[in-house]
């Protein structure tokens, strides 16, 4: 599956990934085909994107794309697999399995932000699915399973006493994902805000909130201490 | 503008608002026409929704709709005005003008959640605009102006020292709106979660975070007090 299709000089200008290095040819491998397909799906919509449009964007023929994939749905399947596989992979890492529920929750949310930042167009595609086909419904079911795993961590952390219980767990999870999923709408990889800093910011807002109540803020802390000592 | 169009027995089943009460007739007023138009725009997309489809949904004729509005763009203009007017109205209220920046910010965010919950389909329409026409671009400019007003409150609260300064203000505003705007994707008015409770939850997560560190949590508070006293 690593054979290449040709990219003429007047194509997208995007550096292709991999290839066989044949002299005078700018090759595209499957990953590059997938990248361009995902961008087109996000721009025009999956239904409205034809294999002809993809071939045009790649500066190649439809048959060259069919060398890599069996068709448009195969491209969608592989793209969704990349987004979902990335998210599901987080849950299998030691940080998501070992430690207190709150620690595991932080690890998983941080991982989700990383997957979003690293594979932004792929996760965008996943988040915009409507469930029009069996493939889309299967992907949505896997996305819901990931959300449920996070919801269970929230539940466990509430039982443990580290997460506040005065907000309904489902509402908390939805607000968390609202914040995290919004990243695909405004984050631009390669800018001043690195994926790590972005993940830190999300974790800080989600767990600590924007109000100053850190140990470094003496006024807020003494006000808190006063309330505790008089309660 | 309060004249009515007729709704036959086989129409949507939705209770019409207002009307002139002529016996044997189920009337639609402008608000009801707008409601149905907005729902259709959200379901099929604005471009794909014809006046014919709207007439069919209303169980009336296109000319009956033209009695209320000059055309499809007029419906869109009025729908967007309702969403934007609601948001802009918050900024003019005393709670958005008087008090500390943090208090005003809470008031505005709470108001935004209320507008979203009360006029969910209208705000959904606004949030999904792509800026394809002059009308859409004007609406997006007004939405950005609202976002900027919130960003200025965040800035002022940071200067005041009540909001944490270790997160970039633009990132903070985007995460806040990510959380708030996500409400249109999952909130169902009329359920157990009231708009007021929803607003409380959003304000709590945004300002306090999900981690337990309230005055009621003695362990967290004493740990904080210890850190403050030894720093």
From TrEMBL, chains A, B:
Keyword DNA-binding: yes
UniProt domain HTH tetR-type: residue ranges: 27-87
DNA-binding region extent: 50-69
Disordered: region residues: 1-23
Keywords, in A-Z order: DNA-binding, Transcription, Transcription regulation
PROSITE patterns: HTH_TETR_2
Name of the protein this chain belongs to: DNA-binding transcriptional regulator, AcrR family
GO function terms (MF aspect): DNA-binding transcription factor activity; transcription cis-regulatory region binding
Pfam family, one: TetR_C_24
């Amino acid at each position: 599956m690593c054979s290449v299709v040709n990219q003429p000089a007047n194509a997208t200008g995007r550096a292709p990934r991999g290839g066989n290095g044949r002299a005078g040819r700018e090759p595209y491998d499957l990953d590059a085909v997938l990248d361009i397909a995902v961008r087109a799906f996000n721009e025009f919509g999956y239904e409205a994107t034809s294999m002809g449009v993809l071939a045009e964007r790649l500066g190649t023929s439809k048959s060259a794309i069919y060398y890599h994939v069996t068709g448009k749905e195969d491209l969608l399947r592989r793209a969704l697999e990349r987004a979902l596989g990335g998210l599901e992979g987080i849950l299998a890492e030691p940080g998501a399995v070992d430690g207190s529920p709150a620690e595991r929750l932080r690890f998983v949310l941080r991982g989700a932000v990383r997957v979003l930042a690293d594979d932004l167009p792929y996760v965008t595609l996943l988040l915009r699915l409507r469930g029009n086909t069996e493939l889309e419904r299967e992907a949505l079911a896997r996305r819901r399973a990931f959300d449920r795993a996070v919801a269970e961590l929230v539940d466990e952390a509430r039982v443990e006493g580290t997460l506040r219980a005065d907000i309904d767990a489902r509402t908390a999870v939805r607000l968390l994902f609202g914040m995290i999923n919004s990243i695909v709408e405004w984050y631009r990889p390669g800018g001043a805000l690195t994926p790590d800093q972005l993940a830190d910011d999300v974790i800080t807002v989600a767990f600590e909130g924007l109000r100053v109540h850190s140990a470094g803020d003496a006024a807020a802390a003494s006000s808190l201490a006063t309330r505790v000592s008089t309660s």
